[in-house]
Each structure stands twice: as C-alpha cells, then as structure tokens.
Amino acid sequence: PNASDADSIAFTRAERLAFLDRTPEAINAFREFASKYKSSPLKVQADQAIGDLFFQTERYADAINAYGQIPQTSRNETIAGREVLSLYRLKRVKQADKAANQFKKTYKTATEWLAQFEVEKGKYQLAIKNPKKARQKFEDVIKKFPQTAARSDASYYIIRAYYDEGPDKEGNNEPYFESLLQFVRNFSDNPYWVEANLELAKYWEANE
C-alpha cells in the first residue's frame, strides 16, 4: 500500500484496540503510529488518543505529557480541559489554577468544563481536611452552574463534606442526612447513586 493507505490502516488498528478496551496495546499502537507517520494528517489525532487513554485510566501525569506533544495550533477544548483536571487530580493546584484561568479566557462559554474545575477545587479541600470550605465550593457549583452535569457530582460531594464536618454538640448531623436523602431522590443517573443508597439505608438502620 502507499503511505496514505499504510497510515490509515495503522491508525484504524490502534482505534480498534482502544474500542476493545485493550488499552496498553492501544497506547503502544498509537505511539508507534505517531513515531512512524510524523507527517500524517492523523498524527494529532493519535497524540490526543494517547492522552485520552491515559486520562481515562487515571494516569494523569502521562496524560499531561501526551497532550504536551500536540502543537498549540491543533489544541482543542477537550485537551485543555483534561489537562486542567489532570493537574487538579495530581494536586498540582497552583498550576491547575493558572491553567484554569487561561482556559476561561480561551473557552469563555465552556460551562461544563468550568463547573468540573470547581468540583475538583472542592475535592482538593476535602482531601486536605477542610470540609467546610469544600462544601462552599460545591454549593457554588450548584448555584452558578445549575444546568451542568457537574451539579450532580457537587451534590454528592456535599454529602461527603457534611459527613466530614461531623455531628453537632448534641450528636446530630441533620444536614448530612438531608443532603444524602436529596441526592438519592434526585440523581439516580450519577455513578455514586448506588453507594449513596446503601449509605442511606445504613443511616436509617443506625438511627431507628
């Protein structure tokens, strides 16, 4: 086959490996493609695919490195957004904040991404044992971005924040129970819904 046929075949093979969830093989196939077909019009797609596969498997440092191979002129909203999320999840908060600010300037209407960044900021506050500040972040997401998918995640993490804040002097934690109940009622499509249901059942059993 000529060069254009060869690069198309190699790229399709890598795509199929990714589709079959053979992720390590897919990453290697895309890497081989990017190395062998440097002038191919599919080169940028291959580089992004490598970054996306690393991101999806929570290898965030590798994802950042892979996205960094992509020329500035070929970058897009998804690449920029996932770089920011990766930085937050690696707890490189100053870098993440700087990247998020740049993202806002470049993609002013990308509210889904902006909402996700705020959720990550709240998760970081939970991780460093600052549940009250975390809860305020999550509540801001719900107020500022009510139509985004991030709203349901923010609602779940409000539960975690109230739980970490602990009960009052009388031993009650009504806000925790209410936030848990509201989440179960309103967000059945969230990945944490089953876990929250079990948590709610355990709470009721303990407080009968």
Which tags fit this structure?
208 residues, mainly alpha, 11 helices, 74% helix
Provide structural commentary.
The chain is mostly helical and 208 residues long. Helices cover 74% and strands 0% of the residues. It has 11 helices and no strands. It has helices spanning 3-19, 23-36, 43-56, 60-67, 77-89, 93-106, 111-127, 131-144, 150-165, 174-186, 193-206. Helix 5 packs parallel to helix 7 (111-127). It is elongated and about 70 Å long. The N and C termini lie far apart (73 Å). The mean pLDDT is 94.
Helical fraction equals over 70%
Structural class by secondary-structure content: mainly alpha
> What's the rounded overall pLDDT mean?
94
What is the radius of gyration?
A: 21 Å
Silhouette: elongated
Tell me the number of helical segments per DSSP (H or I, 4 or more residues long).
11
Low-confidence stretches: none
Please provide the count of β strands: 0
SSE order, as H and E?
HHHHHHHHHHH
The main β sheet shows up as: none
Helices and strands, with pairings:
Blueprint: H1 3-19, H2 23-36, H3 43-56, H4 60-67, H5 77-89, H6 93-106, H7 111-127, H8 131-144, H9 150-165, H10 174-186, H11 193-206
Helix pairs in contact: 1-2, 2-3, 3-4, 4-5, 5-6, 5-7, 6-7, 7-8, 7-9, 8-9, 9-10, 10-11
